[in-house]
Every structure is written in structure tokens, then in C-alpha cells.
Amino acid sequence: MTTPSVGVERRIGQRFAFNLPVSLRDISTAAEGLGFTQDLSSRGAFLFTDMAISEGIEIELTLKMPSEITLGKSMRVRCRARVLRVTKPADNWKPAVAVETKLAETKIGVAVCLKDYEYLPETEDNSADFRRISALHSPSGVERSATPAPGSPRAAAH
Question: Which end is more exposed in the chain, N or C (fewer Cβ atoms within 10 Å of the end residue's Cβ)?
């Protein structure tokens, strides 16, 4: 009779299931890409992207770190990270949380260890933080107009 193997938890920080947009940049080549996180902690993250990434490289991530991790208010940060593991879509990766499973199955999964943080100034319009991540939006969905709805606080400011 065989005993089931017990996995050893190597994470230092608690992981939170956050589906957040993230921009990526390969530090050595300056190649850029977009993705979204599956989970995140103060020390690491697992994310999905279309960007070609290899294990061991250093990348830069820019995202809005949630208050659960900053232990204060949510803040935009730029982090240096080392890629620990890359999971190709063909490996049939199944996300642990409901992150639009079909979408996640077509992306490359990337586990990173976060190193340095740089807190970025807040922008007035948070929609400008990241370029549009078209893969996260339904292709059949109707684009929303950039014009604010009448009566909205933003419409009154114009």
C-alpha cells in the first residue's frame, strides 16, 4: 500500500486570489506584455500572459497592489521579479480559482518571486494605469463609449 505524498508549502506569505491586470517587461530585452494575476502575495505571484517568458529571467511587473497585501490602501507598484516556473498551455494547467478557466487554459502560466518594490504615484484616471487587455473582454461584447454618462461626476467636471 502506498501513502499519498504530502506537498511541502514553501511560500512565506499568504496568497490571495486576485484577478488583477498586470503589465510585464523583460528587463534584459525590454520586451513588453500584458497579463493577469491568479494569486498574489507580498513575496510572489502566479499570473497568466501571452508574453514569451523563460524560467530564471528577471522581469518587471506593474500592477495595483491591493490593500490586503499593502496593509494600508491599494497602491500602484512596479516590482522586479525572478521567474521561478513557466507552465505552457499544453500542460493542461487548471487554475485553482475561477479565473475564466477557458481563458487561463490558453495562456502561459508564470510563477514569480517578487524582489524590489517601487511605489508609483496615483493617476487621476485609474483606467489609464494599463493598456486595454483585450483578452479579458468578450469579443462579442459591445465597446463602452469613452464619453461619461450624463449626470455622472466625471461628466459634471467637463
Answer: N
